[in-house]
Amino acid sequence: MTSSKGLLLPVLCAAVAAAGLASAGFAEPPAVAVEISVEAAYAQGCVDCHDGTAVATVGALLEELGHPDVDEETETLPGDCAACHSEEGGMWFLSEVAHMSHYREPATNSFVQDYGGECRHCHLMDGETGAVSVKSGPKNW
């Protein structure tokens, strides 16, 4: 069991760091966060990388994995996947499936090795609000 004394130093350090950032004028996000967040690379997320050239389409990967056929139900990736891959759908959450497949075994994982494991290939971040969303595009298989 951790005593309240054991928590005092980390809590105090966090408070001092937060106060320091606020007093340093970081109430607004640094300009660099806004600039890097408007990057247009892979604007449609999954479908831009998984285009069937360097990387197999999502449809081909699903078939290889023995996933049930979702061709008729799917128009937009990855948004339509959330119909099943969500709390409501009852299957593994899409965020878990995507992150596990893109980051497991980093020494041999092509997303990490060839694409740098860059979050912004799949995600958008609003540099002003800090809100993060997932890029989306039309099915390409």
Verbal overview:
It is a single chain. With 141 residues, the chain is mainly alpha-helical. It has one domain (29-138). 38% of the residues lie in helices and 7% in strands. The chain is built from six helices and four strands; from the N terminus they run ααααβααβββ. It has helices spanning 4-23, 31-36, 46-49, 58-65, 94-103, 110-115, and strands spanning 76-77, 123-125, 132-134, 137-138. Strands 1-4 form a two-stranded antiparallel ribbon. A two-stranded antiparallel ribbon has the order 2-3. A hairpin with a 6-residue loop joins β2 and β3. The termini are far apart. Mean pLDDT is 81; it is low at 7-24.
